[in-house]
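Incident log, structure service

09:12 report received: a user says their structure output differs between two submissions of the same chain.
09:20 pulled the input from the user's history:
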Amino acid sequence: MKQKKSILHLGCGPHKKPGSIGVDINKNIGADIIHDLNKFPYPFKKDQFDKIIAENILEHLENIPKVMEELHRISKNGTRLVITTGHFSGIDSFTDPTHKHFFTSRTFDYFIPGTDLYEYHYSKARLKKLEVLLGPRHTNNFLLKILLKLINKYAVIYEKRFAFIFPVGVISYKLQIIKEK
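09:34 re-ran on a clean worker, output below:
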């Protein structure tokens, strides 16, 4: 018999993913667990989750390295971490006064062995990058599809030279938790 995957949905708001454990600070939206994600430790055992979803929540949290360490603690080795947030090029990233952080294609390289940012690493969290996607996942606009394909192929060049000319607004990451064996 196949064991059911344990899924955590951080900052779920009223749109909790079916089958997940929803965590939110707001008591009025029906989350399974009410918790301030700026407070550590999170109310979960270590090595508990197979998948963690964080949609439009990380930009509101105070200490991203500490959050990543906590997600690492409560995840099993190989856990999939799916993050969606505003890209720094989007006007909404700066409009919302509750946003504390801005994200790029390299934000999580700090936790990924073998990247140039990893040398500054002092966190226990280790990740593997599976996918980074700038811009909306789906569009019917043919020209936008071509532009997004180029943007994603040359993400760092785009972010350094063209991000404020052609803002993508959103960025999504698929990462994997790596634990020492």
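09:41 both user submissions now match this output. Likely a transient worker issue. Closing.
09:42 reviewer note: Strands lie at 7-10, 20-24, 33-34, 49-55, 75-86, 127-134, 170-177. The first helix runs from residue 64 to 74.
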